[in-house]
Specification:
With about 210 residues, this protein is an all-alpha fold. It folds into two domains: about 45 residues, Arc Repressor Mutant, subunit A; about 140 residues, Tetracycline Repressor, domain 2. Helix content is about 70%, strand content about 0%. The protein is built from nine helices and no strands. The longest helix has 27 residues. The N terminus is likely disordered.
């Protein structure tokens, strides 16, 4: 049963209010990772953030609302452009071969998923029954699929990829394979794999499927 607010939450306008709200979001991530969504309590999140129980409802009206924000921020991290925080400086798309581009994208996705595996596991679970969290998950999937579709069309035009492939179906299918594999491996612990071997093998599957 959800702990309900007694007053409507306020949108913070001051710098202090924005910082306090951000502290609650970060505290919530810690508690959700530790306890899962169902067992997490608003009082535990407030305590983790160093705030009173009542202060929580000044910013959020429910545990669900706060979790959706945590999930949205995590999806943004997954889809953020590559930068030096990923360990590799961004390079122009035309500076790499198709296989190298696929490898770099797979490595980045698996690294980001691995580094956030605890919260990703909770997000995957909640997405099964929360429409808004599921919509955020589907938006991430669509982001990667649309990017892959554009690349496939580009490579088909250059004569590098099987011209008979439907770029939409290929992008959706290969993206779903990668996302589900990440969940099985990094969240559910289906098997223990060497990280570099996974990047290599999944990249080979992409390359073979596309006819590279």
């Amino acid at each position: 049963m959800t702990e309900e607010a007694t007053t409507a939450p306020q949108v913070p306008r001051s710098r202090k209010g924005v910082a306090t709200r951000a502290r609650l979001v970060e505290a919530a991530r810690v508690v959700f990772e530790r306890d899962g969504f169902l067992a997490a309590r608003v009082s535990d999140i407030a305590t983790e953030a160093g705030l009173s129980h009542g202060s929580y409802y000044h910013y959020f009206d429910s545990k669900e609302q706060l979790f959706r924000e945590v999930a949205d921020l995590q999806e943004q991290r997954l889809t953020a452009p590559p930068d030096r925080a990923d360990g590799v400086a961004p390079r122009p798309a035309d500076a790499t071969t198709p296989v190298e581009r696929i490898r770099a994208a797979n490595r980045r996705y698996f690294e980001r998923y691995r580094d956030a595996a605890a919260i990703m596991g909770v997000i995957e679970q909640v997405s099964r029954y929360d429409d808004q969290v599921n919509a955020a998950r589907m938006a991430t999937q669509r982001h990667f699929a649309e990017r892959s579709e554009r690349a496939i069309r580009e490579w088909q035009a250059a004569g590098l990829v099987d011209a008979d492939l439907d770029p939409v179906i290929a992008a959706d299918a290969l993206g779903a394979m990668t996302a589900r594999f990440a969940e099985l491996w990094l969240v559910q612990g289906y098997r223990d794999y060497d990280f570099d071997a996974v990047v290599d093998q999944v990249t080979r599957l992409w390359a073979n499927a596309l006819g590279l």
